[in-house]
Specification:
Number of strands: 0
Largest sheet: none
Low-confidence stretches: none
Order of helices and strands: HH
Number of helices: 2
Distance between the termini: 50 Å
Helix content: over 70%
Structural class: mainly alpha
Mean pLDDT: 88
Radius of gyration: 21 Å
Length: 62
């Protein structure tokens, strides 16, 4: 990654940070966090199910 790319990212981030209302930004972040938590719940459940299935099938091989 070139230094010009990094400088551009920093400039874009600083520009974004100065735009908007802090309360609005905070509310938007809270909504996004809640959405991601809801999205993660079924993924975590699926992961646990796959772990149990893996353990079951591994125990059947012996």
């Amino acid at each position: 990654m070139g230094s010009s790319t990094l400088k551009k990212w920093i400039r874009d981030t600083q520009k974004h940070d100065t735009v908007g209302n802090d309360a609005t930004d905070h509310t938007a972040l809270l909504r996004e966090n809640e959405r991601l938590r809801r999205e993660n719940l079924p993924l975590r459940e699926e992961r646990e199910l796959l772990k149990k299935a893996t353990q079951f099938f591994a125990s059947q091989r012996s």
